[in-house]
TrEMBL record:
GO terms for molecular function: ferric iron binding; oxidoreductase activity, acting on single donors with incorporation of molecular oxygen, incorporation of two atoms of oxygen. Residues 1-20, 68-92, 255-324 are annotated as: Disordered. Residues 92-190 form the Intradiol ring-cleavage dioxygenases domain. It comes from Brevibacterium aurantiacum. PANTHER family: INTRADIOL RING-CLEAVAGE DIOXYGENASES DOMAIN-CONTAINING PROTEIN-RELATED, PTHR34315. The keyword tRNA-binding does not apply. Signal peptide: none annotated. Residues 310-324 have a biased composition (Low complexity). SUPFAM superfamilies: Aromatic compound dioxygenase. This is 3,4-dioxygenase subunit beta. Residues 290-303 have a biased composition (Gly residues). Keywords: Dioxygenase, Oxidoreductase. Pfam families: Dioxygenase_C.
Length: 324
């Protein structure tokens, strides 16, 4: 049996090979991974045997990709289509050119009129920069949008083409966070309940959709959806949700929404608070956005297929279709 190394007592505490023990009350072999790595690097004999292998282990322990500088222990937010209703100028309507779009409360039109109904939802996106040790991505601009409680999208659905609610831009703070005050979106035919967002390098670049460095969607948890959809204002959403799953959703189905599922707390009376970590790798080429399957056509005409939640007429429920 190998002999357990004995620490050396010093005025500053017990040490081993000149290094203070991280856990003085534990044996040397139980000091933890960080102490072990420091010990490995201090031994010329070990380095002589394994050479660059130790360097590889150390890089892996740090979780860094030496080629790109990105954090290899973090998964980049999946690139997704912006869908047929982005209103970012890529298929007709462009809200990002309008004064007042930078706002945190998106429940009303930009001019403050026509506040939408629905269960209160405050959601936070925490954007990090994978190319910079996954640090907070301060200063990026995040454009978020989603449907209302009837499955309608402002600027597109029939009867609300002139509305601008449930769309807004926020600039990430020193924590990389943006927070929006909104309402819980509906579930319409063929899609899991979700919120869209695009990330831009800064607020000055939001007027051109091609400037987006990431486009993705946030999924909302099933338990919260089930509770919200019991309310009459969400008529039809419960049935629509029962006919789709995260695995067969045409956006979240790639991984069952693993990297896009929000954490959430709250209830239908007090409202919900949701958050999602959004790691962005600027070293990779964005593949999301409106072009690959986003559809919409000239003037923002909704693509064929799908329907608004049951209980809404075309005039009331709009034409929120099953998007890609």
């Amino acid at each position: 049996m190998a002999r357990v190394p004995e620490p050396e007592e010093t005025p500053d505490g017990p040490t081993y090979e000149g290094r203070l023990l991280d856990h003085p009350d534990e044996e040397v072999v139980d000091q933890g991974a960080a102490f072990d790595i420091r010990t490995l690097f201090s031994r010329r004999s070990v380095l002589g045997v394994v050479g660059a292998g130790i360097g590889t282990v150390a890089l892996a322990a740090c979780g860094m990709n030496s080629a790109s500088g990105s954090d290899s222990s973090v998964t980049e937010i999946p690139d997704e289509t912006a869908g047929p209703y982005p209103a970012d100028g890529s298929n007709g309507p462009d809200i990002l050119e309008q004064s007042g779009i930078v706002r945190s409360d998106i429940r009303s039109n930009i001019d403050g009129s026509e506040t939408v109904e629905g269960v209160a939802l405050t959601f936070t996106l925490k954007v990090t920069d994978m190319a910079n040790d996954n640090k907070a991505f301060e200063g990026v601009a995040v454009y978020a949008w989603h449907c209302d409680a009837q499955g309608r999208y402002s600027m597109y659905s029939e009867g609300v083409e002139d509305a601008t609610w449930l769309r807004g831009v926020q600039v990430a703070d020193e924590k990389g966070e943006v927070t929006f005050t909104s309402v819980f979106p509906a579930c319409y035919t063929g899609r899991w309940t979700h919120i869209h967002f695009e990330i831009y390098p800064d607020v000055d670049s939001i007027t051109d959709a091609d400037n987006a460095i990431a486009t993705s969607q946030m999924a909302l948890p099933e338990d919260a959806c089930n509770a919200v959809f019991e309310l009459s204002v969400y008529d039809g959403s419960a049935e629509n949700l029962s006919n789709v799953s995260l695995d067969d959703d045409n956006v979240f189905g790639d991984d069952g929404g693993e990297h896009q599922m929000a954490t959430i707390s709250g209830d239908t009376d007090k409202g919900y608070v949701a958050s999602l970590d959004v790691p962005v790798d600027t070293g990779t080429e964005p593949t999301g956005g409106a072009e690959p399957g986003g559809g919409g056509g000239e003037g923002g005409e909704p693509p064929e297929g799908g329907a608004p939640p049951e209980g809404g007429t075309p005039a009331e429920g709009g034409a929120a279709s099953a998007e890609k």
